[in-house]
Amino acid sequence: MGSLREFIRGSVVVLKRPCSYKGCKRCQAGLKHPGLYHTVSKGGKTQTTYLGSALAPRCREHVEAYKRLLDLTERLSDLNLALLTGKERTR
């Protein structure tokens, strides 16, 4: 757990959105611009934060660290239950 200092719940996703430039030929052709975003659900609503290509790799690392932390927490919980009850849980 000590090595998992920076973690973020959520996902890194690619969303395609139109830009705000009125003369954009891509948007006028019905195409959209891909962008990298972090999404997370809180209170039943999805929050989206633009990352861009510079922050996306670091955010992905933090999201993966969160998944490792969740897995570790589940395994520790199973171990603690086994120690408490004397019965080992199987998955």
What does this protein look like?
This protein has 91 residues and is α+β, with helices and mostly antiparallel strands. It has one domain. The protein is 42% helix and 25% strand. The protein has a 3-stranded antiparallel beta sheet, with helices on one face.
N-to-C SSE string, H for helix and E for strand: EHEEH
Mean of all residue-level pLDDT scores = 90
What class, by secondary structure content? Answer: alpha+beta
> What spatial order of strands do you see in the largest sheet?
1-2-3
Distance between the termini: 22 Å
Summarize the structure.
It is built from two helices and three strands, in the order βαββα.
Keywords:
3-stranded antiparallel β-sheet, 25% strand, single chain, elongated, 91 residues, 2 helices, alpha+beta
List the topology elements.
Elements: E1 11-17, H1 25-28, E2 33-42, E3 45-50, H2 52-85
Antiparallel strand pairs: 1-2, 2-3
